[in-house]
Structures
1.
Amino acid sequence: MSIGSPVLGADTIKIGVIGPMNFLQGKHHWNGALMAQDKINAAGGIQVGDKKMKIELVKADSNEFLSMTDATNAMELLLTREKVDFIVGGFRTEAVLAMQDIAMDYKTIFLGCGAATKSICDRVGEDYDRYKYWFRITPFNNMFLAKTNFIHLATVGAIMRKAVGIEKPRVAIVGEKQAWVEAMVKASEATIPKLGLEIAGIWRPSQTATDVTAELSAIQRENAHIVFTIFSATVGVTFAKQIGELKIPVAQVGINVEAQKDGFMEATGGMGNYVMTLNTYARDVEINELTQPFVKGYIKRFGEVPAYNAGTHDGINILAESIKKAGSLDSDKVVAEIEKWDGNVAAGRIKFDQNHDPIWGPGYLTGVGVQWQDGKLVGVWPNKWKATPEAPEVTYKGIVPYKLPPWFIEKYKK
Amino acid sequence: MLADIILTTLINGSTYALLAIGFSLIFGVARIVNIAHTAFYMVAAYCIFYGTHRLGAHPVLAVMMAIILVMVLGLICYRLFIEPIREHEAAVLIATIALAMVFQEIVMLIFTGDFRTVPPLVPGYLEFAGLKIAYQQLLSIAAAGVILAAVWTFLAKTRLGLAIRATAQDREVANLMGMNEARVAMVTLVISVALAALTGAAVLPLMVLHPHMWMAPLIMMMAVVVLGGLGSLKGSFTGAYILAFSEALVVFLIPKGAFLRESVALSIMILVLLLRPEGLFGISFEEER
């Protein structure tokens, strides 16, 4: 019996939801978990052996944007005071690594729903006995995030060639100074030239920069056509806002976590149009039969499209099924069942690799490329995407064509 | 590239100068190290956001309301938390850190950590030397210039300004000359936080609002004040543009190291202090005041 497991016979299964609760990421962690809890409890709970147990969520504010100590304290409290059985959530890699260690000390299953760094899952392969209680639910790891973004880049590059005849679009790589970005910047330097694109330069602003006009001036001087963004923090809002205000003739493609949120338009003062980012869910896009019921239910209840952190919903559903199959709350037995998981959740089909990282690719998780068009966040990718020349085309239901900013077309149209 | 560097220096330098002069003013007059100075700037920014977005007020009216509210808040904070411990500089420093944290948490409770913006007063941009400059940026530079000139005139040409300068030069003698030093300190603090609020109003449309937005300018503002010489208004003004210039140089010359701009600026400050410990325009010995 593992330390973190409760005594069978308790009435409820306690699931800790940990995240920066005063920020959007934490709110979506919590909201996604609430959706799962209510659905499971309405159906009578989870069948554990010969009895049904309901879920009880415990909210823990990690405050991980600001304080690593707050994050580790929140995790300790979940495990020692609240004595939760399972944990979902986490956002910043630096905090998740520390929180992961604490959860592993207590042999408690921790389903990550925020941090993308591959090395978090690599720990499972390096020391399986210690780290096997960790699984990443969302997003897929930063190497696949980069790969997907390169596909988006190539797609936009092709659209540019066709629309305005720029044969070799120049790409400015702009990544905030955070741990998860390092590998992506390196991969970008190696890959972008292979996509028929040219690197105009690399800029690394602070993740909390409140003014990037200097960077934007420098990017204009380098005649960049595309800005490849790698942002998870405030700088994503600042950057999009200032590009929109100055109508700088560039297409923004990449990851901009702030742009995944419905509040992005308000945050940028209406200047966020034409920003494209990778996302997990989109308002009208159907990845499988489970996507739209979840997205529509979420919008109805919380008034906005779920951010990827709301993948706590998928995590708890996987957990519930695995507990049912294990017939026990014992961490080791549940781990064995999650490892066998291969099935659809709202974000797509999840199957874990040997490091407990979800598999990426057509038929598995791919994410959705979304773009702000006329103040609305719409799905624009995959749109007739072929992973290999022989592979079948992939287009999710509800996808619309990508649009270049009109001021970009105006400048470059011959 | 030179035009870009100069423009960036002017925008950032003006913001730093506005913040640093307010901070320096209250330190020079009352030896109050008000760490909450930029938190007042953050509170003013949220007040303007609330006025324009939630109450639908005209931006000018919202700015006026924000300045008055922040001045009243500054006065209350001074009377309740600073005045009783004013003679203990370290205690004041800690108390103002606590005040800043309290403001941050209250703003977080009311507005959450979501990012907000207010639209520019003058939308659009002009193209100059191949560079796009938003009208709001020019307006912010102009506003900063007007505010700085007004502060200068106020200190140089009015009786209250004279009293403030006299108290800044020598508190004891000013007291002996019949000036109510405690009242001058209180008035100066109110003016100082009003300057913080005005800074918020001037640069707000260029910024993204969040409850922690007071931290980054605090570090730069303190660096500016130390570089210029604690309590020296001229020093704060000069220091602001020196550090803004160094930041702009880093971004334009070392794009991959753009995140280092603050570190480089702070290193310049340390270098100057090694050569001239009192700062550029500071006074070497306390006795000289």
2.
Amino acid sequence: MSGEPVLLEVEDLSVDFELRGVSVNAIQSISLKVSAGETVGIVGESGSGKSVTSLAIMGLIKEPGFLRSGAVRIFGEDMLKLTSRQRRKHLGSVVSMIFQEPTESLNPVFTIAQQIDEAFKAHGSMDRAQRKDRVLELMKIVGMPEPEKVLRSWPHQLSGGMNQRVMIAMAIACNPSLLIADEPTTAVDVTVQQQILLLLRRLQQENNMGMIFITHDLSVVSTMADKIIVMYAGQVVEVCDTDDLFQLALHPYTEALLKSLPENYSALNKRMDSIKGTQPAAGETLPGCRFQPRCNYARELCSQQKPVLNVIEEFSPREVRCFYPLVSDSGTT
Amino acid sequence: MPSLLSVSKVSKTYRESTGFLGTREKEVLSEVSFELESAQILAVVGESGSGKSTLARQIVMLEQPDSGEIFLHGKPLQSEATVHQYIRMIFQNTAASLNPHKRIYQQLEEPLINYAGLSRSERANRIRQSLEHVGLDAGLVSRYPHMFSGGQRQRITIARALILNPEIIVADEAVSALDVSVQAQILNLILDLKDEMGMSWLFITHDISVVNVIADRVMVLYAGKVMEIGCVKDVLENPLHPYTRKLLQCVPKMGASLNMDFNEELSSPDVVVPSTGSGCVYRNRCPLADQICGESEPPVISSASQSVACFKA
């Protein structure tokens, strides 16, 4: 989205985990930008580093994990250089996050009202009555039926979809500029998913929020994101505009991922193209490309040298980490 | 000839706590009837709370239905021991359905010891065959479950389900927790097993795009009642029940933008609970509902390959 101010700038972010004295790379030099009103989708399979990326942006990487390099700038201010007290002021009011398992993310021994109120206690200067009004207002914003009754309830009395609405209400309580949604609809039914996606989209439009939408589901991300980042084994392998990605995947992994979606197969009893093998285990290092052992197009060079993320001129501004991107002439061999 | 599995008017009610000392009865399955033929995959779809897993538990006899009967080859299901030889079940959470303290070999051997009465070397043979069927290296049997990936563990639970040569496998969200690339591998495996061994599957899922790939027939459940059942092609291309249409409409399509003028209030299952009392259970979410839908049970309208319970179909 041109013209909108850049909210978030992540530069060369790397996170390692130290396991039994050995340092294991979880994400390697991730860079991304999010503007106001823009949605950036991060897709990848489990273990690809999606969630570590979001936790690192929030400054929530804990032992045994540590930041090896990188900067996370929100409105130009480096979040990673702040003290934890300063960062706490930003969390919630500038950048906020919702998680996959709403029921597990809520505290079972507090009522919904108490938990939403906590966000205001931490940030605002409102008195009790003002906070109470605002909590009720939030419940209405997220489309909660019978808001007064829900506010008196405990998380276990609500369904997964309702709890996710509560989580969203907490996340947007202090009008954050940036919302990170980590698999927000993975644990709910398709019908509820549709509602949650609609709700997020509406809130985003109303507040011109920037959003990072993390998911393993390419269909979901395609309906939400303006730009998509595909991750594999801790690296970004392809970055491009959403519409372009579904026209033509340039990285072999992206292509394989699209081919293993069931919705692309309509003929009954036809076998699907699956990706052979599994992702390299954490700590496993390869001399060449991380996807090479599973790649159908791999050549000699791929097992010897590490590819870098390159801008492909003819498909600019698309970036691909591959020696032989699947542009029509070289990809088919 | 009788069907392989015939489920006739099965109902199940659970007691639900309503607070201190209070209980309330909740009907989770209501007169569910369907047939499963050999070498067929029947998908069961519906939102959470629709009774999919309760239905599975009745079929593998983990629970007894309150009313109705289940027939295998025309004979009523009786003892658990016979059921366990003919009908096996696999689950979504592979880490929880394998015992973390036992080696894979012991876990695969257990059903053979309990039900097959084979010698030690025959058992070893069967375990090797079973692992080969699911595409796993038989040399890995002395490992523990945590040493495998999620996809490999699901292969192991399928191998364990296959080991008694059952006729039916009930799979409860068996691929839902897997990554798409691994999911494709397991779906291919299920289709291979159906073709090679003539095995039938009751495939419970919430993911309709998977149904399209794998199933021959599909049954749509809502609040414990069958809304629509029929050939996959007919039901997905020409859904007759408003609920089936709603489900299909909510499946995100790749590359399509979000449909923003969707009627938010009517379609929210977390907002609207199923109707109770007489009449159609779906009526308070249904855009077509009118007076008649609240008065009596909708009739089941059947054609050769599809049947639907709706006044408006």
3.
Amino acid sequence: MTAFPFSAIVGQDEMKRAMILTAIEPAIGGVLVFGDRGTGKSTAVRGLAALLPPISAVPGCPINAASHADCPDWADVPEADPQDIPTPVIDLPLGATEDRVTGALDIEKALTQGTKAFQAGLLARANRGYLYIDEVNLLEDHIVDLLLDVAQSGENVVEREGLSIRHPARFVLVGSGNPEEGELRPQLLDRFGLSVDVASPKDIPTRIEVISRRDAYERDRATFLQEWQKRDAQVRARILDARALLPSVVTPPAVLERCAALCVALGSDGLRGELTLLKAGRALAAWEGKKKMTEAHVAAVAPSALRHRLRRDPLDEAGSGIRVTRMVDEVLSA
Amino acid sequence: MEPAQRWTMALLALRLVALDPRLGGIVVTARAGPVRDRWLDALGRLSLPLRKVPLTITDEQLFGGLDLAATLAAGREVRAEGLLAQPGALLVPMAERMEPGLAARLGQALDSAEHVLIALDESADEGEGIPASLRDRLAFHIDLDGIACSDALTGFGTLPETTDTCTTVKDIAAIAELCESFGVASPRAAIHCLRAAGAHAMLHRRRAVAPEDIEAAAILTLAPRATRLPEAGDSAPPPPPQQDAPDATADGDGLEIPQEMLLDAVRANLPTDILAQVAAKRRRGAKGAGAGSKRTGNRRGRPLPPRAGRPDGRARIDLVATLRAAAPWQTLRKAQSIHDRPVEIRAGDIRLKRFEEKSDRLLIFAVDASGSAAFARLGEAKGAVELLLAEAYARRDHVALVGFRGAQADVLLPPTRSLVQTKRRLAELPGGGGTPLAAGLKTATEIAVHAKSRGMTPTLVLLTDGRANVALDGEADRTRAAADAGKMAQAALLQGVEALVIDMGKRPERALRTLAETLDAAYVPLPRANARSLSDAVTGALS
């Protein structure tokens, strides 16, 4: 089954841009998509896989290591040349057990062969790729704790049932959810680099477009995919160009100062806000093919980079995106 | 709609799903009974194999996994295929009790393969219902309640061959307009509607979708999701744009029907109680899915003694206890065994880990919004509840909100962690009318009992001036009202609901103090003060 093409998603530009930016610069640290049901949140994430350039990994390695030397010794990977594989996009289902997430003692081997072996979990498989959590706000607290720990250290440590294993787990976290069903803990919120709010399309022409594309996709998948794969390929090529350009993008000190001033004015906690703002702004500049990051780039990414970092009043109903936009206007026009 | 007609529509939904499995499935609201049985019998006519999904289904059974008994017997790995491996018609009984986790997994399964899901919603009150994420993915929502056996006469009939039907941009535009007028936001509903129209055309052996197909599809898919009713005599909607949509194959002649007509047709066919439904939906809004954790689980908390059982993908095996259970039998088994294995383990030896965890707390606010209370200090009470909500947020408690005024009590918000929702509902709560204290207590107790069964620890916070003057049946009768309130308090006590009574009257009410004693609750008469001191009082009494 081939996923609905990313570029065929109607509208939702902020969401699409945020995902592209993390593809250009994985260090931004993931995207959180919050919004109504049926707005293409999971479709976008699944479509994203097709946009990502392949990575080179040793076949059979549970953590997708780039060279045989990097493969963990517990996995017992046969010597082989790295091959190109699609960037892994791993689903973390709700109700997944700790064992499935971190990996655990391989019960099958323990019972049938009497050997102590480690069965790698979802975190291992997501290494060097994406970890996608649908309905992230309904995730159980103990799994959230675990993810926070791994996302911070980039390493998964398993100490249980007589096993003592650690392996790298660096991934881009993508979460989606419907805010009406529950809140997300501030600690986890902070882990996401960018956060976007999506809403159902309101105007009729957009709705018509959404329905017709979905209809076309379901009627004649092959033709539809062929039609849109070209667009996807263009986006992928542009992502690769942007990645190449990214190291040479310069940030003038004045722009840096504006970033800092913006975060101070908004009173966002910690320095992660500034750093994300900077990385995202630079990635946006690279996406646009510019060699210099400007204030316009800061203004464009500020709502996504900062809206979830404001110290928030739990009873505040107005979206914090509005507050950010207002402050951006104020600070950048000063 | 007449019951007989509703029955026909219910069967029509099934026929459409049989023709186009991509419609996802059907939510069936009905109590168990002969009519439902007759409808379920028709499921056998689907071309897909029918499989029952119990709510306690494990991941291994859903997605496949190790067959432990067979593996141990054979001495090598034996895998069992999961329920979702082949496309099938999945029947979920008691779907209203489904946990969000299972709903998410089934939703994903529906997204990725052509399963048909029939969810039987047997909920008694409107507070329940199947998880919204799954509900959104199923095209049809039908209600069999109120249909008598004598109404359910039509049979399933025969299905035509599946063919391709054409839809035009005009059809899509018509559906988009309809969604707009009924306030259906989810694009999924619109896509379902389009597909249903296509299947309906197929059913009538038409090559292209006709207005009556869209009409039938809209009645089945959009009407149950309606959040508002279109105003009669709207100005004619703008003509649909024709550019940049994929070209449709049919030229669409004969489809030039005005939107108005379609709208009227659908409106005329809406269920009779649609207004009530719309109102109920608005009141209920998004349901909180804050499922409380089970008291005894196998994932975290204080360890309990291990128990014999089968690993189900969720439980963790207690390896040491398993070996200990197997140890006494080793000599005997080795003598009988044909394999030469260091340890002989049988399925019966498997021990699972169990943990006990502290359950989540649920604060149920029952707020008196009657005229007398509103006159006194409803505003203050609201302020105090808001402060408490901020604290509940810090402690990650769940909250529920019941308001009572006039003749009855309403669940303004079922248990949720969404504070914004709670605050919004609270702000919307108007004041005025009698004081149906008994009804308020009854509703709050019901929530508490339900929450308990889901593993939460409920605490009832009753804010009232205690001047009960409306009896449980809605009659204005001061004496009976007081007696009923006393009875309900007793019932709450019997259910073991912890409570706290806050007197928000102008001066302390003796009757309320007695009520608090019946409830075995702390009684906090509230002196003239601000919201902050009320909140402090509650925090003090709760700790």
